[in-house]
UniProtKB/TrEMBL annotation:
Entry keyword Flavoprotein: yes
Family per similarity comment: Belongs to the acyl-CoA dehydrogenase family.
Protein name: Acyl-CoA dehydrogenase family protein
PROSITE patterns the UniProt entry points to: ACYL_COA_DH_1 (PS00072), ACYL_COA_DH_2 (PS00073)
Entry keyword set: FAD, Flavoprotein, Oxidoreductase
UniProt KW Flavoprotein keyword: yes
All residue ranges annotated as the Acyl-CoA oxidase/dehydrogenase middle domain in the record: 129-223
Domain Acyl-CoA dehydrogenase/oxidase N-terminal: 13-124
CC cofactor: FAD
PANTHER family: ACYL-COA DEHYDROGENASE, ISOVALERYL-COA DEHYDROGENASE, MITOCHONDRIAL-RELATED
Domain Acyl-CoA dehydrogenase/oxidase C-terminal: 235-389
Organism: Streptomyces chrestomyceticus
Protein backbone atom coordinates (compact mmCIF):
# COMPACT_ATOMS: atom_id res chain seq x y z
CA UNK A 1 0.00 0.00 0.00
CA UNK A 2 1.21 3.51 -0.81
CA UNK A 3 1.75 5.93 2.02
CA UNK A 4 -1.03 8.43 2.65
CA UNK A 5 1.14 11.30 1.42
CA UNK A 6 1.20 9.68 -2.05
CA UNK A 7 -2.57 9.26 -2.30
CA UNK A 8 -3.17 11.58 -5.26
CA UNK A 9 -6.64 10.52 -6.36
CA UNK A 10 -8.61 13.67 -5.62
CA UNK A 11 -6.06 16.44 -5.88
CA UNK A 12 -4.60 18.27 -8.83
CA UNK A 13 -1.03 17.55 -9.89
CA UNK A 14 1.88 19.82 -9.04
CA UNK A 15 1.97 20.95 -12.69
CA UNK A 16 -1.67 21.99 -12.57
CA UNK A 17 -1.13 23.87 -9.30
CA UNK A 18 1.87 25.70 -10.77
CA UNK A 19 -0.18 26.61 -13.84
CA UNK A 20 -2.91 28.04 -11.59
CA UNK A 21 -0.38 30.16 -9.70
CA UNK A 22 1.15 31.57 -12.87
CA UNK A 23 -2.20 32.31 -14.55
CA UNK A 24 -3.52 33.93 -11.37
CA UNK A 25 -0.46 36.20 -11.14
CA UNK A 26 -0.78 37.16 -14.79
CA UNK A 27 -4.53 37.76 -14.52
CA UNK A 28 -4.17 39.97 -11.45
CA UNK A 29 -1.33 42.00 -12.98
CA UNK A 30 -2.39 42.33 -16.61
CA UNK A 31 -6.16 41.66 -16.83
CA UNK A 32 -7.80 42.72 -13.55
CA UNK A 33 -6.75 46.41 -13.83
CA UNK A 34 -8.83 46.79 -17.02
CA UNK A 35 -11.86 44.67 -16.08
CA UNK A 36 -14.11 47.48 -14.81
CA UNK A 37 -13.24 49.74 -17.74
CA UNK A 38 -13.81 46.94 -20.27
CA UNK A 39 -17.27 46.39 -18.75
CA UNK A 40 -18.10 50.08 -18.48
CA UNK A 41 -17.09 50.85 -22.07
CA UNK A 42 -18.31 47.51 -23.47
CA UNK A 43 -15.04 47.20 -25.35
CA UNK A 44 -13.00 44.17 -26.35
CA UNK A 45 -10.33 43.37 -23.69
CA UNK A 46 -7.34 43.79 -25.99
CA UNK A 47 -4.95 44.01 -23.02
CA UNK A 48 -6.12 40.55 -21.93
CA UNK A 49 -5.73 39.13 -25.42
CA UNK A 50 -2.21 40.54 -25.67
CA UNK A 51 -1.19 39.21 -22.24
CA UNK A 52 -2.71 35.77 -22.85
CA UNK A 53 -1.13 35.48 -26.30
CA UNK A 54 2.28 36.62 -25.06
CA UNK A 55 2.16 33.89 -22.42
CA UNK A 56 0.72 31.23 -24.75
CA UNK A 57 -2.53 31.03 -22.75
CA UNK A 58 -4.99 32.19 -25.44
CA UNK A 59 -5.62 28.70 -26.90
CA UNK A 60 -3.77 26.24 -24.68
CA UNK A 61 -5.82 23.28 -25.94
CA UNK A 62 -4.25 23.23 -29.44
CA UNK A 63 -2.15 20.05 -29.83
CA UNK A 64 1.63 20.37 -29.99
CA UNK A 65 1.60 18.85 -33.48
CA UNK A 66 0.05 22.10 -34.75
CA UNK A 67 2.25 24.47 -32.76
CA UNK A 68 0.05 24.61 -29.66
CA UNK A 69 0.78 24.11 -25.97
CA UNK A 70 -1.03 20.74 -26.01
CA UNK A 71 -2.66 21.43 -22.64
CA UNK A 72 -5.01 18.80 -21.24
CA UNK A 73 -8.68 19.51 -20.55
CA UNK A 74 -8.11 20.20 -16.84
CA UNK A 75 -5.28 22.66 -17.58
CA UNK A 76 -7.61 24.45 -20.02
CA UNK A 77 -10.28 24.62 -17.30
CA UNK A 78 -7.78 26.10 -14.83
CA UNK A 79 -6.69 28.80 -17.31
CA UNK A 80 -10.31 29.82 -17.99
CA UNK A 81 -11.22 29.70 -14.29
CA UNK A 82 -8.34 31.93 -13.23
CA UNK A 83 -8.97 34.51 -15.96
CA UNK A 84 -12.72 34.54 -15.16
CA UNK A 85 -11.90 35.17 -11.50
CA UNK A 86 -10.87 38.72 -12.47
CA UNK A 87 -12.69 39.27 -15.80
CA UNK A 88 -15.35 36.99 -17.26
CA UNK A 89 -15.24 38.74 -20.66
CA UNK A 90 -11.52 37.97 -21.00
CA UNK A 91 -12.03 34.31 -20.11
CA UNK A 92 -14.06 33.94 -23.30
CA UNK A 93 -10.85 34.29 -25.32
CA UNK A 94 -9.42 30.87 -24.36
CA UNK A 95 -12.90 29.35 -23.91
CA UNK A 96 -14.32 30.29 -27.32
CA UNK A 97 -11.04 29.56 -29.10
CA UNK A 98 -11.56 25.99 -27.89
CA UNK A 99 -15.26 25.94 -28.76
CA UNK A 100 -14.67 27.26 -32.27
CA UNK A 101 -11.72 25.03 -33.11
CA UNK A 102 -12.70 21.77 -31.40
CA UNK A 103 -14.87 20.63 -34.35
CA UNK A 104 -11.74 20.87 -36.53
CA UNK A 105 -9.70 18.96 -33.94
CA UNK A 106 -12.40 16.27 -33.55
CA UNK A 107 -13.51 15.81 -37.16
CA UNK A 108 -11.41 17.91 -39.54
CA UNK A 109 -9.02 16.64 -42.20
CA UNK A 110 -5.29 16.83 -41.59
CA UNK A 111 -5.12 19.69 -44.13
CA UNK A 112 -7.76 21.70 -42.27
CA UNK A 113 -6.01 21.14 -38.95
CA UNK A 114 -2.67 22.36 -40.33
CA UNK A 115 -4.24 25.35 -42.05
CA UNK A 116 -6.35 26.65 -39.15
CA UNK A 117 -4.85 25.40 -35.89
CA UNK A 118 -1.38 26.84 -36.61
CA UNK A 119 -2.48 30.50 -36.80
CA UNK A 120 -4.76 29.93 -33.77
CA UNK A 121 -1.86 28.53 -31.74
CA UNK A 122 0.38 31.44 -32.75
CA UNK A 123 -2.24 33.99 -31.69
CA UNK A 124 -2.64 35.34 -35.21
CA UNK A 125 -6.34 34.41 -35.28
CA UNK A 126 -9.25 33.64 -32.98
CA UNK A 127 -11.96 31.04 -33.66
CA UNK A 128 -15.74 31.42 -33.15
CA UNK A 129 -18.58 28.89 -33.24
CA UNK A 130 -21.72 29.47 -35.31
CA UNK A 131 -24.57 27.15 -34.35
CA UNK A 132 -27.50 29.29 -33.06
CA UNK A 133 -29.85 31.23 -35.33
CA UNK A 134 -32.71 33.70 -34.77
CA UNK A 135 -35.21 30.79 -34.87
CA UNK A 136 -32.91 27.97 -33.79
CA UNK A 137 -31.68 28.29 -30.21
CA UNK A 138 -32.32 25.28 -27.98
CA UNK A 139 -33.67 23.54 -31.10
CA UNK A 140 -30.38 23.86 -32.96
CA UNK A 141 -31.39 21.18 -35.49
CA UNK A 142 -34.11 23.56 -36.72
CA UNK A 143 -31.51 25.82 -38.36
CA UNK A 144 -32.15 27.38 -41.78
CA UNK A 145 -28.65 28.42 -42.91
CA UNK A 146 -27.96 26.37 -46.01
CA UNK A 147 -24.89 25.20 -47.90
CA UNK A 148 -25.40 24.22 -51.54
CA UNK A 149 -22.78 22.23 -53.47
CA UNK A 150 -21.56 23.92 -56.63
CA UNK A 151 -18.77 21.97 -58.33
CA UNK A 152 -15.82 21.90 -55.97
CA UNK A 153 -17.31 24.66 -53.80
CA UNK A 154 -20.19 25.18 -51.38
CA UNK A 155 -22.28 28.34 -51.30
CA UNK A 156 -23.52 29.35 -47.83
CA UNK A 157 -26.51 31.56 -47.09
CA UNK A 158 -28.07 32.39 -43.73
CA UNK A 159 -27.85 34.23 -40.43
CA UNK A 160 -26.16 33.05 -37.23
CA UNK A 161 -27.05 34.75 -33.94
CA UNK A 162 -25.40 35.10 -30.52
CA UNK A 163 -21.92 34.53 -31.92
CA UNK A 164 -19.29 35.20 -29.27
CA UNK A 165 -16.28 37.26 -30.39
CA UNK A 166 -17.85 37.74 -33.83
CA UNK A 167 -16.01 40.37 -35.82
CA UNK A 168 -12.81 39.87 -33.82
CA UNK A 169 -12.30 36.21 -34.76
CA UNK A 170 -10.74 35.41 -38.14
CA UNK A 171 -12.23 31.90 -38.33
CA UNK A 172 -15.78 30.59 -37.83
CA UNK A 173 -17.02 27.03 -37.55
CA UNK A 174 -20.40 27.27 -39.27
CA UNK A 175 -23.15 24.63 -39.15
CA UNK A 176 -25.36 24.65 -42.24
CA UNK A 177 -28.03 22.46 -43.83
CA UNK A 178 -26.77 20.43 -46.79
CA UNK A 179 -29.83 18.11 -46.99
CA UNK A 180 -33.10 19.64 -45.69
CA UNK A 181 -34.89 16.28 -45.77
CA UNK A 182 -32.71 14.74 -43.08
CA UNK A 183 -33.03 17.31 -40.24
CA UNK A 184 -30.05 16.82 -37.88
CA UNK A 185 -28.42 14.25 -40.19
CA UNK A 186 -28.56 16.77 -43.04
CA UNK A 187 -26.37 19.35 -41.28
CA UNK A 188 -22.69 19.81 -42.19
CA UNK A 189 -19.88 21.85 -40.64
CA UNK A 190 -17.58 24.27 -42.46
CA UNK A 191 -14.73 26.67 -41.71
CA UNK A 192 -15.61 30.17 -42.91
CA UNK A 193 -13.07 32.99 -42.84
CA UNK A 194 -13.87 36.56 -41.88
CA UNK A 195 -12.33 37.70 -45.18
CA UNK A 196 -14.53 35.47 -47.37
CA UNK A 197 -16.66 37.64 -49.70
CA UNK A 198 -20.24 37.78 -48.41
CA UNK A 199 -19.38 37.52 -44.69
CA UNK A 200 -20.56 40.47 -42.59
CA UNK A 201 -21.59 41.20 -39.01
CA UNK A 202 -24.50 42.80 -37.19
CA UNK A 203 -24.15 45.50 -34.55
CA UNK A 204 -22.82 44.28 -31.17
CA UNK A 205 -25.65 43.19 -28.84
CA UNK A 206 -26.27 45.43 -25.82
CA UNK A 207 -26.00 42.89 -23.01
CA UNK A 208 -26.51 42.54 -19.26
CA UNK A 209 -23.00 41.17 -18.70
CA UNK A 210 -19.81 39.92 -20.40
CA UNK A 211 -19.86 43.28 -22.13
CA UNK A 212 -16.20 43.06 -23.16
CA UNK A 213 -16.84 40.04 -25.35
CA UNK A 214 -18.63 41.14 -28.53
CA UNK A 215 -21.75 39.16 -29.40
CA UNK A 216 -23.01 39.78 -32.94
CA UNK A 217 -24.96 38.22 -35.74
CA UNK A 218 -22.95 36.71 -38.59
CA UNK A 219 -24.44 37.19 -42.04
CA UNK A 220 -23.58 34.74 -44.81
CA UNK A 221 -24.64 36.17 -48.14
CA UNK A 222 -23.75 33.88 -51.03
CA UNK A 223 -20.45 32.92 -49.34
CA UNK A 224 -18.56 30.66 -51.72
CA UNK A 225 -15.94 28.44 -50.09
CA UNK A 226 -13.87 25.47 -51.31
CA UNK A 227 -15.48 22.08 -50.60
CA UNK A 228 -12.39 20.98 -48.69
CA UNK A 229 -13.34 23.44 -45.94
CA UNK A 230 -16.07 21.04 -44.85
CA UNK A 231 -15.28 19.61 -41.41
CA UNK A 232 -15.71 15.85 -41.64
CA UNK A 233 -18.12 14.14 -44.03
CA UNK A 234 -21.33 15.73 -45.33
CA UNK A 235 -24.19 15.28 -42.87
CA UNK A 236 -21.96 14.80 -39.82
CA UNK A 237 -21.92 18.46 -38.73
CA UNK A 238 -24.63 18.22 -36.10
CA UNK A 239 -23.06 15.14 -34.51
CA UNK A 240 -19.73 17.02 -34.40
CA UNK A 241 -21.46 20.05 -32.87
CA UNK A 242 -23.00 17.95 -30.09
CA UNK A 243 -19.75 16.07 -29.45
CA UNK A 244 -17.96 19.42 -29.24
CA UNK A 245 -20.43 20.69 -26.62
CA UNK A 246 -19.88 17.58 -24.47
CA UNK A 247 -16.27 18.74 -24.09
CA UNK A 248 -16.72 22.52 -24.08
CA UNK A 249 -19.61 22.81 -21.62
CA UNK A 250 -16.90 22.10 -19.07
CA UNK A 251 -15.20 25.37 -20.06
CA UNK A 252 -18.42 27.25 -19.21
CA UNK A 253 -18.44 25.48 -15.85
CA UNK A 254 -14.85 26.71 -15.45
CA UNK A 255 -15.90 30.26 -16.25
CA UNK A 256 -18.70 30.02 -13.67
CA UNK A 257 -16.22 28.71 -11.08
CA UNK A 258 -13.90 31.64 -11.70
CA UNK A 259 -16.63 34.26 -11.43
CA UNK A 260 -17.92 32.68 -8.22
CA UNK A 261 -14.41 32.42 -6.73
CA UNK A 262 -13.72 36.07 -7.49
CA UNK A 263 -16.97 37.08 -5.78
CA UNK A 264 -16.36 34.88 -2.73
CA UNK A 265 -12.77 36.15 -2.34
CA UNK A 266 -13.92 39.76 -2.45
CA UNK A 267 -16.81 39.22 -0.03
CA UNK A 268 -14.56 37.33 2.40
CA UNK A 269 -12.16 40.26 2.57
CA UNK A 270 -14.92 42.83 2.85
CA UNK A 271 -16.70 41.27 5.85
CA UNK A 272 -13.45 41.37 7.86
CA UNK A 273 -13.06 45.10 7.19
CA UNK A 274 -16.65 46.33 7.45
CA UNK A 275 -17.63 47.10 11.04
CA UNK A 276 -21.19 47.43 12.37
CA UNK A 277 -22.43 47.25 15.97
CA UNK A 278 -18.82 47.62 17.10
CA UNK A 279 -17.31 44.60 15.34
CA UNK A 280 -16.56 43.23 11.87
CA UNK A 281 -19.72 41.90 10.22
CA UNK A 282 -17.76 38.70 9.55
CA UNK A 283 -18.09 37.94 13.26
CA UNK A 284 -21.86 37.57 12.96
CA UNK A 285 -23.08 34.02 12.56
CA UNK A 286 -25.63 34.96 9.91
CA UNK A 287 -22.81 36.26 7.70
CA UNK A 288 -20.58 33.27 8.51
CA UNK A 289 -23.29 30.85 7.44
CA UNK A 290 -23.74 32.68 4.12
CA UNK A 291 -20.01 32.43 3.43
CA UNK A 292 -19.97 28.76 4.46
CA UNK A 293 -22.78 27.95 2.01
CA UNK A 294 -21.07 29.91 -0.76
CA UNK A 295 -17.78 28.09 -0.23
CA UNK A 296 -19.51 24.70 -0.02
CA UNK A 297 -21.41 25.18 -3.30
CA UNK A 298 -18.28 26.44 -5.03
CA UNK A 299 -16.18 23.48 -3.91
CA UNK A 300 -18.87 20.99 -4.96
CA UNK A 301 -19.04 22.69 -8.37
CA UNK A 302 -15.24 22.59 -8.71
CA UNK A 303 -14.99 18.87 -7.91
CA UNK A 304 -17.72 18.06 -10.44
CA UNK A 305 -16.09 20.26 -13.08
CA UNK A 306 -12.62 18.79 -12.60
CA UNK A 307 -14.01 15.23 -12.72
CA UNK A 308 -15.77 16.12 -15.99
CA UNK A 309 -12.52 17.61 -17.35
CA UNK A 310 -10.67 14.39 -16.49
CA UNK A 311 -13.28 12.38 -18.42
CA UNK A 312 -12.98 14.78 -21.36
CA UNK A 313 -9.20 14.35 -21.40
CA UNK A 314 -9.29 10.56 -21.18
CA UNK A 315 -11.76 10.36 -24.06
CA UNK A 316 -9.72 12.84 -26.15
CA UNK A 317 -6.63 10.71 -25.56
CA UNK A 318 -8.45 7.69 -27.02
CA UNK A 319 -9.65 6.11 -23.79
CA UNK A 320 -12.75 3.98 -23.47
CA UNK A 321 -16.16 5.69 -23.66
CA UNK A 322 -17.23 7.38 -20.42
CA UNK A 323 -20.36 9.22 -19.31
CA UNK A 324 -19.00 12.58 -20.53
CA UNK A 325 -22.36 13.78 -21.89
CA UNK A 326 -23.91 13.53 -18.41
CA UNK A 327 -20.88 14.94 -16.60
CA UNK A 328 -20.36 17.84 -19.01
CA UNK A 329 -24.01 18.86 -18.70
CA UNK A 330 -24.00 18.36 -14.91
CA UNK A 331 -20.83 20.42 -14.41
CA UNK A 332 -22.09 23.29 -16.57
CA UNK A 333 -25.54 23.28 -14.98
CA UNK A 334 -24.43 22.96 -11.37
CA UNK A 335 -21.49 25.37 -11.57
CA UNK A 336 -23.51 28.07 -13.32
CA UNK A 337 -26.42 27.78 -10.87
CA UNK A 338 -23.90 27.95 -8.01
CA UNK A 339 -22.19 31.00 -9.56
CA UNK A 340 -25.50 32.85 -9.79
CA UNK A 341 -26.32 32.08 -6.14
CA UNK A 342 -22.81 32.90 -4.90
CA UNK A 343 -22.51 36.22 -6.75
CA UNK A 344 -26.01 37.24 -5.62
CA UNK A 345 -25.09 36.46 -2.00
CA UNK A 346 -21.79 38.30 -2.38
CA UNK A 347 -23.65 41.43 -3.49
CA UNK A 348 -25.88 41.00 -0.43
CA UNK A 349 -22.89 40.79 1.90
CA UNK A 350 -21.66 44.17 0.68
CA UNK A 351 -25.09 45.70 1.24
CA UNK A 352 -25.60 48.98 -0.60
CA UNK A 353 -21.96 48.97 -1.72
CA UNK A 354 -22.51 45.68 -3.52
CA UNK A 355 -25.10 47.38 -5.69
CA UNK A 356 -22.71 50.07 -6.94
CA UNK A 357 -20.15 50.00 -9.72
CA UNK A 358 -17.46 51.17 -7.31
CA UNK A 359 -17.13 47.50 -6.33
CA UNK A 360 -16.73 44.52 -8.71
CA UNK A 361 -19.52 42.35 -7.35
CA UNK A 362 -22.43 43.77 -9.35
CA UNK A 363 -20.38 43.08 -12.50
CA UNK A 364 -19.69 39.53 -11.38
CA UNK A 365 -23.37 38.96 -10.69
CA UNK A 366 -24.31 40.24 -14.16
CA UNK A 367 -21.56 38.17 -15.78
CA UNK A 368 -22.62 35.00 -13.93
CA UNK A 369 -26.11 35.03 -15.43
CA UNK A 370 -25.02 34.13 -18.95
CA UNK A 371 -23.35 30.93 -17.76
CA UNK A 372 -26.85 29.56 -17.05
CA UNK A 373 -27.90 30.34 -20.63
CA UNK A 374 -25.23 29.80 -23.26
CA UNK A 375 -23.89 26.51 -24.58
CA UNK A 376 -27.31 25.11 -23.79
CA UNK A 377 -29.64 26.58 -21.17
CA UNK A 378 -29.72 24.84 -17.82
CA UNK A 379 -33.19 23.57 -18.67
CA UNK A 380 -31.68 21.85 -21.72
CA UNK A 381 -28.81 20.53 -19.56
CA UNK A 382 -31.38 18.82 -17.37
CA UNK A 383 -32.91 17.17 -20.44
CA UNK A 384 -29.42 16.05 -21.52
CA UNK A 385 -28.70 14.67 -18.05
CA UNK A 386 -32.02 12.83 -17.82
CA UNK A 387 -31.35 11.14 -21.18
CA UNK A 388 -27.83 10.15 -20.18
CA UNK A 389 -28.14 9.10 -16.54
CA UNK A 390 -24.97 7.21 -15.52
Amino acid sequence: MAGTADFDLYRTSEEHDMLRDSVRSLAEAKIAPFAAEVDEQARFPQEARDALTLNDLHAVHVPEAYGGAGADALATVIVIEEVARVCASSSLIPAVNKLGSLPVILSGSEELKKKYLGPLAKGDAMFSYCLSEPDAGSDAAGMKTKAVRDGDHYVLDGVKRWITNAGVSEYYTVMAVTDPEKRSKGISAFVVEKSDPGVSFGAPEKKLGIKGSPTREVYLDNVRIPADRMIGAEGTGFATAMKTLDHTRITIAAQALGIAQGALDYAKGYVQERKQFGKPIGDFQGVQFMLADMAMKLEAARQLTYAAAAKSERISAGGKPEDLTFFGAAAKCYASDAAMEITTDAVQLLGGYGYTRDYPLERMMRDAKITQIYEGTNQVQRIVMARNLP
